[in-house]
Automatic annotation (TrEMBL):
Pathway: Protein modification; protein glycosylation
Molecular functions (GO terms): 3-oxo-5-alpha-steroid 4-dehydrogenase (NADP+) activity; polyprenal reductase activity; polyprenol reductase activity
Source species: Dipodomys ordii (Ord's kangaroo rat)
Membrane spanning stretches: 20-46, 79-102, 114-136, 148-172, 276-302
Localization: Endoplasmic reticulum membrane
Described function: Plays a key role in early steps of protein N-linked glycosylation by being involved in the conversion of polyprenol into dolichol. Acts as a polyprenal reductase that mediates the reduction of polyprenal into dolichal in a NADP-dependent mechanism. Dolichols are required for the synthesis of dolichol-linked monosaccharides and the oligosaccharide precursor used for N-glycosylation. Also able to convert testosterone (T) into 5-alpha-dihydrotestosterone (DHT).
Membrane topology listed for this record: Multi-pass membrane protein
Protein name: Polyprenal reductase
Keywords, ordered alphabetically: Endoplasmic reticulum, Lipid metabolism, Membrane, NADP, Oxidoreductase, Transmembrane, Transmembrane helix
InterPro entries in the cross-refs: 3-oxo-5_a-steroid_4-DH_C (IPR001104), Dfg10/SRD5A3 (IPR039698)
Domain of life: Eukaryota
GO cellular component: endoplasmic reticulum membrane
Amino acid sequence: MAPWTGAELLALSPLRALWLALAAAFLLALLLQLVPPGLFPGYAFFQDLIRYGKTKLGGVPRPAACRAFDVPKRYFSHFYVIAVLWNGFLLWFLIQSLFLGVPFPNWLHALLRILGAAQFQGGELALSAFLVLLFLWLHSARRLFECLYVSVFSNAVINVAQYCFGLVYYVLVGLTVLSQVPMDGRNGEWSLPYHRPPEGWSSVYVIGKNVLMQARWFHILGMVMFIWSSAHQYKCHVILGNLRRNKAGIVIHCNHRIPFGDWFEYVSSPNYLAELMIYISMAVTFGFYNTTWWLVVTYVFFSQALSAFLSHKFYKSQFVSYPKHRRAFLPFLF
Ligand SMILES: NC(=O)c1ccc[n+]([C@@H]2O[C@H](COP(=O)([O-])OP(=O)(O)OC[C@H]3O[C@@H](n4cnc5c(N)ncnc54)[C@H](OP(=O)(O)O)[C@@H]3O)[C@@H](O)[C@H]2O)c1
């Protein structure tokens, strides 16, 4: 595990700046929920921008102009189609690089440098980034499966800005992981003696010889956490899907009901809590020290906390019998 140095903490690459800005925006949106309705101009537009799905139903009346930008929430599956394809593509480049010594193509290397990928500092492990990218791909594939076969979508909507954000989100997350792969330019020198880089390919190569020798205890811990959180998120999505199915598995309605079981006994949105845990498991896999990834985790924390807060309010406003002990997002706390 590499130590956290002051300089490393302070370096603000474009990717870090982006995740920091997103985290700050969602923290601000969360804090603005404490402001009484109508206290600032554009309150209804602001609420419409941050709400989606069932929470659009339980909030302030929606301006007609906002409804013109509605997109069906079932289009969530598009995000995961892009995520599976794009992150599969990045994973393919990384596998080729790690196991066959093929360098990244120039365009990808240039893109990573623009986004702030640093040269090898010492201590980073190519295996960590490989595992995180693999986890991200598996997560995207499972979510796609859930969208297609587990979840039952109602006529709930998201707005077009949220839709566009969802389309680029997993592209950015994948690039963020790849930008953490340790690379060595060595003044443009191609370092594998038995190979010359093909035309149009970068001479920068991934430091990943003896990848399997890089296995550490935190890779095992991260993997266990990833499997555990993913299993709970899947279970929660099954519970939600079953609320709209009969015992034979046939969809019988599209209403919102009170879910029970698994982590729903503790919080209103355990699927959002599991999402946070999945990203934390990736931070563990990076060996705990990766500042860029902790900024991604911070963004996920505030974005999921905001959605969980709004869902919790929705449930409490719709159901008088809603379990009193249930928190919004974090068991016993929030
Ligand atoms: N990393 C990120 O930035 C990010 C952002 C957003 C979402 N996500 C993840 O994506 C997953 C899905 O997010 P989501 O916001 O769509 O979750 P969600 O609102 O809980 O919805 C999941 C599914 O359950 C249905 N549903 C929700 N509440 C229900 C209820 N009370 N009764 C019956 N059915 C209900 C929804 O249908 P309808 O909504 O169609 O009614 C949808 O099909 C989550 O695990 C979340 O963590 C991640």
